[in-house]
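S.,

Sequence below, as promised.
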Amino acid sequence: MVTLLLDSSRLEVALSATERVLAFRKDAVRVERAHITKVQLVDDPWSWLRGVPNPGTVVPRTVAMGVWRSAGGDDFVLVRRRRPSVVIDLEGDPEFQRLVLTTRHGLALVQALRLEGEDEPVDVVQLVTTEIPVQDGDAAASPSGRTPRRRAPRPAQA
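The prediction came back faster than expected:
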């Protein structure tokens, strides 16, 4: 999972050693905050990939990491399976037109971008921990936030 760091002037996508190897990238991806035009939360990041990996690694529907080149520009992609992701559209960035990232902290990123930035880079989740609303009732009791499924009654046996 990527680590997203945000300060007052830029967003940094910190990559693990494995992610750097698979993405053919030596360092983190840094984007000026002013270049971010739109952030979307998506359930299926595979439908947002455009172009071909160059350089990058792809195992269809399993992992996609690296730079995707297309007529619309270059995208940085870090996608794992069919997990929730965030699509960040950029304008004026010299390196990328779009970032497609699998992260479970997409909602936290959207909320953090609305807040005033910190001077030092801070993990996105730490910025908004107090800002995320907590649900009451049965949904809060379940770790996934879902209500448990009830079993169907069994037919009577003679």
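The CA atoms of residues 56 and 86 lie 19 Å apart.

Coffee later?
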